[in-house]
Write a structure and sequence with these properties.
This protein is of the alpha/beta class and 286 residues long. The protein is built from eleven helices and eleven strands.
């Protein structure tokens, strides 16, 4: 299959390295330096043997024809990417945290929604460390649409891509985890395990989980146990929001916790607090 991956961050490089073993992969990135390095040296990934050769392009130069376009950029970059691919007939797979991007997907796109359950750290423009192996789960965005044959082609034994029918269920499940773990680890600048190990952080996490479950009518205790298990399994990892704060980058707080605020018809004060607090930290770091 001929695959375009938009975004040269951790998830883009991780996906490109694994899929590039079996498919023709084109990486679309924003800097000429990364284009040249990927073109000359390929992608180096800690869980893949040897360098994986890929084609590389500037995203602003326009898109070639591909069987699949994977959008692996952050939420705030999705609108500009959609503008670049507005004439595509390809299937488009979105791999974002949060759910705000769902409101931006145009009707004409054959869109697939993905949830990534891998830990990855970008080392440099061509190198990614695979910190935690998981899955990518993919579901069609439109009712009645399918994409199972395409998703099945992506499946690899050591990099499972799995087809699901209900994208809403997938995304809300990921949102619960993200809206609890990401802002708290970023605010207190700690690894994921502190959600369980620090009693004060745990109480805040429990209440954030309670709030998001009330908004989406989910069973709180069941979801809280799932959050705790994720925090335990990824205990040594730093959340993406924590990494953004450390690097002085804009976070995805508005697409995660802010999305919960926008969807709620009741007060969710702990979510309001973490949104305001993360924005305060962003301003301090800018």
């Amino acid at each position: 299959m001929d695959i375009a991956i938009v975004g040269g961050g951790a998830i883009g490089l991780l996906t490109g390295a694994h899929l590039g073993r079996d498919h023709t992969v084109h990486m679309y990135v924003r800097r000429e330096e990364q284009v040249e390095q990927l073109k000359q040296e390929g992608i180096s990934c800690s869980s893949v043997e040897g360098a994986v050769p890929v084609h590389s392009h500037l995203v602003t130069e326009g898109f070639l024809s591909h069987d699949l376009v994977i959008i692996a950029v952050k939420q705030d970059q999705v609108p500009s990417v959609l503008q670049e691919i507005r004439n595509t007939n390809s299937s488009v797979l979105f791999l974002q945290n949060g759910m705000a991007h769902l409101e931006l997907i145009p009707d004409y796109l054959n869109a697939l929604i993905g949830v990534v359950d891998h830990g990855a750290l970008k080392i440099d423009d061509r190198t990614v460390e695979h910190l935690g192996k998981g899955t990518i789960q993919v579901a069609p965005f439109k009712k009645g649409a399918t994409g199972q044959s395409l998703v099945d082609e992506l499946y690899q034994e050591d990099f499972p891509v799995l087809y699901r029918k209900d994208y809403q269920k997938l995304m809300v499940a990921k949102l619960v985890v993200n809206t609890v773990i990401n802002p708290l680890t970023a605010l207190f600048e700690v690894r994921n395990k502190q959600i369980n190990d620090n009693p004060s952080i745990q109480r805040l996490a429990y209440t954030l989980c309670e709030e998001v479950c009330s908004v989406f009518s989910l069973p709180h205790e069941e979801e809280w146990e799932r959050v705790r298990l994720v925090a335990e399994r990824t205990g040594e990892n730093e959340s993406s929001m924590f990494k953004d704060i450390k690097a002085g980058r804009k976070t995805e707080i508005d697409a995660i916790s802010g999305y919960v605020l926008r969807k709620s018809n009741r007060d969710v004060p702990y979510h309001q607090f973490v949104v305001d607090a993360i924005h305060a930290k962003e301003r301090r770091g800018s």
